[in-house]
Specification:
CATH superfamily: Vaccinia Virus protein VP39
Oligomer: single chain
Distance between the termini: 42 Å
Strand order of the largest sheet: 3-2-1-4-5-7-6
Structural class: alpha/beta
Strand content: 15-25%
CATH architecture: 3-Layer(aba) Sandwich
Radius of gyration: 16 Å
Order of helices and strands: HHEHEHHEEHEHHEE
Length: 206
């Protein structure tokens, strides 16, 4: 049975409620992380693990002539993201699809930018799945992962409990750098925020 409280796969009404809370609770961290990318007006952007859809809505304002796509494993996440971004979808600028990062439903080198917010923890095989994300990134494009915790952060007892309870994949800064290199990314930058356990990791595809 799917746990409706599992942020890795929200289900049912409880899952939808959780997505609404996450749209609010991750807002500040997401804005902090997105500032490390320079978006062009015509960028084609993918959000992997798009959750409740707030990140797509924000990025749409940064790429006013661009195209966006979101994927999520959870059908509830897809439905909530579509609901929040109904106008963008109607305009033809956004598509949201149910899919796994194991096999993204896009051609090679489709996107100028790829982001993933609070999602990497839950990927089935994160180091390998990162290579799949890089496959659909254009040469010269940038990929950004943002997370609320990382392995060598000053984690609280509650953080450690959540990591254990949900079996989160939680790399250290050095491990993130290794995984990005192994996936074929270069010009890797790792950002952390003083006073928080946030991390933003970005890299470029040659």
């Amino acid at each position: 049975m799917i746990d409706p409280g599992n942020p890795g796969n929200p289900a049912g009404e409880a899952g939808a409620d959780m997505l609404h809370r996450m749209n609010r609770s991750h807002f500040e961290m997401t804005g902090w992380g997105l500032n490390f990318l320079t978006f062009n007006e015509t960028d084609h952007v993918l959000d992997v693990g798009c959750g409740g859809g707030m990140t797509l809505k924000r990025i749409a304002d940064l790429v006013p002539q661009g195209q966006l796509a979101g994927v999520d494993y959870s059908d509830v996440s897809v439905a909530e993201s579509q609901k929040l971004n109904e106008a963008l979808i109607a305009s033809g600028r956004l598509e949201v699809r149910q899919a796994s990062v194991e096999q993204l439903p896009f051609e090679d080198e489709t996107f100028d930018k790829i982001v993933s917010i609070e999602s990497f923890y839950f990927w089935p095989d994160p180091p390998e799945n990162l290579k799949e994300a890089v496959r659909v990134l254009k040469k010269g494009g940038r990929l950004l992962l943002i997370a609320e915790v990382y392995g060598d952060a000053p984690l609280s007892d509650r953080d450690r409990e959540n990591i254990a309870n949900y079996q989160l994949f939680n790399p250290t800064k050095d491990e993130f750098r290794t995984y990005f290199k192994q996936a074929g990314l270069t010009d890797i930058a790792i950002h952390t925020k003083e006073g928080e356990c946030w991390i933003a990791v970005e890299g470029c595809k040659l």
